[in-house]
Design brief:
Blueprint lengths: L2 H16 L4 H10 L3 E10 L2 E11 L6 E11 L7 E6 L8 H8 L3 E14 L2 E22 L5 E7 L6 H5 L10 H12 L4 E7 L2 E10 L4 E5 L5 E2 L7 H8 L39
Antiparallel strand pairs: 1-2, 2-3, 3-4, 5-6, 6-7, 8-9, 9-10, 10-11
Organism: Dyadobacter luteus
Protein name: DUF3945 domain-containing protein
């Protein structure tokens, strides 16, 4: 077993959101020399249960192992069935565990993406995210699945017109008055989190929770009991309209001319994302 390969995978697993707890199991499975293996990870987000199965495969040409994908099952509190999705690990566009949970919870995540380009490896052609980078909001359509039984993910490109910072400035949120608090709030919402904030209405403070809603170019609001709420009568009518407006336009990610065909190749031929040792762990 190559120690360099192990360290690489340890970092990759950690920065995808699975922490350090899988290191021993990862080492043991790599030492066995088996062709492929799986690791299990369980955690909770609030009262929601999340279970993940991480898939690793050995190269057919070398003794290196690759982290190809993980299957995530999220069981919301009080629900009988779990929602499931497979997230592939490649060169780019990787979804962390927390981001995967947020997507399966119906929230939107902002990611830096890469245009898909057609590549050839050992005579087989497939689409790989290796092209020019762009920023887009991702939202899972929990009513529509693809041929692989995964929920389809819609993209709302930057040209769609949703500006999170400008949208937040329309709301009487106390945290926006402090530069550091504002930055932390924006970064949290971009990861798909439902974030606690303080609304100041008619001089009174009120705790609410908000999440980004790029599809409707607004934010969703919840009271302290996590019940959906809206604007108070003291807030502008234009903001009330923003909450109610319907946006049906689907913005697709730009692709190169060579990437118009759908790839049918297996994920097992993918190479893993480059681990960034200086990158902060996603929470």
């Amino acid at each position: 077993m190559q120690e360099k390969n192990l360290n690489y995978l340890k970092d990759q697993v950690k920065y995808t959101g699975f922490g350090d707890g899988l290191e021993n199991a990862l080492r043991e499975n790599m030492q066995s020399g088996k062709t492929a293996f799986e690791l299990q990870h369980q955690t909770k987000f609030g009262n929601d249960q999340a279970e993940a199965t991480l898939h690793f495969r050995k190269s057919s040409e070398t003794d290196k192992y690759f982290f190809n994908k993980y299957d995530l099952a999220v069981k919301p509190e009080g629900e009988k069935d779990a929602l499931k999705q497979t997230f592939h690990i490649g060169f780019d566009n990787n979804i962390t565990l927390k981001e995967g949970y947020n997507l399966l919870s119906g929230r939107s995540v902002q990611k830096e993406m890469s245009k898909l380009v057609e590549t050839s490896d050992a005579g087989s052609k497939r689409l790989e995210p290796k092209g020019e980078k762009y920023t887009a909001w991702l939202k899972m359509d929990l009513t529509d699945k693809d041929q692989n039984d995964n929920f389809k993910i819609r993209q709302y490109h930057q040209n769609y017109g949703f500006d999170l910072k400008a949208t937040l400035d329309k709301y009487p949120i106390k945290e926006l008055g402090n530069a550091e608090d504002k930055t932390r709030l924006i970064e949290s919402l971009q990861k798909g989190n439902r974030q606690a904030v303080t609304f100041v209405i008619d001089g009174k403070e009120e705790k609410r929770f908000i999440e980004a809603s790029p599809q409707f170019k607004a934010i969703n609001q919840y009271d302290s009991a996590m019940k959906r709420t809206g604007f108070s009568s003291s807030q502008p009518k234009s903001q009330k309209h923003a909450e109610q407006q319907t946006a049906t336009e689907k913005i697709s990610a730009p692709t190169s001319k060579k990437s118009e065909k759908q790839s049918k190749e297996s994920d097992t031929t993918r190479k893993p994302a480059r681990a960034r040792k200086n990158r902060r762990s996603v929470t």
